[in-house]
Design a protein that fits this description.
The chain contains twelve helices and no strands. It is an all-alpha fold. Helix 2 packs antiparallel against helix 6, helix 5 crosses helix 6 and helix 10 packs across helix 12.
Length: 206
């Protein structure tokens, strides 16, 4: 962990956002899509839709067309509108702060909830008893190769990681793992020859 943290000192979320609602929408859009593509879409999307009500007052087909480049746009439009409706009806129009409440939103599982809470409400993430570690495709691949987990289910991987990663590192280290997965520990072929932990990694090809 120390070596990886030193290798990626500036690791942080790559999605552009200015408030919790934008973070939530961007994270939903990022499923099966690159962060770069999401940022291109949200550059105009967030000018058009500023509140939960804005997402609800247009036809679902219009929202789907606006987010089309991110892929799976019909399902994502349904999730965004469902989440916005629940936020308006049950949370006074504000994105909830606790994990327990966040995972009740349509389209929001633990990965998305951890990302939204950690970026939007970092103080709450540090103290929330239900908070954890966001397991995306990079975190899953890297931690399996490093031998941190043998599981394939994201929730089980998260439980394994929470046992060995200190609580204070749960949120920041997620982004270290993501950066490492993007730059070095790539799928399908990792760049083991330039990896800062290649002498410690059980999967190293060096």
């Amino acid at each position: 962990m120390r070596r990886l943290k030193e290798a990626y000192p500036d690791a942080k979320v790559a999605l552009n956002f200015t408030n919790p609602l934008e973070m939530l929408v961007a994270t939903i859009l990022s499923a099966q899509c690159t962060d770069e593509r999401v940022n291109q879409v949200t550059a105009t999307l967030f000018q058009k839709y500023r509140t939960c009500e804005d997402y609800l007052k247009v036809p679902e087909s219009e929202l789907a067309a606006d987010i089309r480049p991110t892929g799976f746009f019909n399902q994502k439009a349904k999730s965004i509108r469902g989440a916005c409706r629940k936020i308006v009806e049950e949370f006074g129009g504000e994105v909830p702060q606790t994990m327990k409440e966040l995972i009740t939103l349509p389209g929001v599982a633990r990965k998305t909830a951890n990302i939204v809470q950690g970026n939007s409400y970092p103080d709450r993430h540090r103290t929330d008893p239900d908070a954890g570690i966001a397991v995306d495709t990079h975190v899953r691949r890297v931690t399996q190769r490093l031998g941190f987990t043998a599981k394939s289910d994201p929730d089980k991987i998260e439980q394994d990681l929470m046992k060995i990663i200190p609580r204070r590192d749960w949120f920041p280290f997620t982004y270290v793992l993501i950066e490492h997965g993007r730059r070095v520990c790539k799928a399908p072929t990792p760049r083991c020859e330039v990896c800062p932990v290649n002498d410690l990694c059980p999967s190293s090809r060096v």
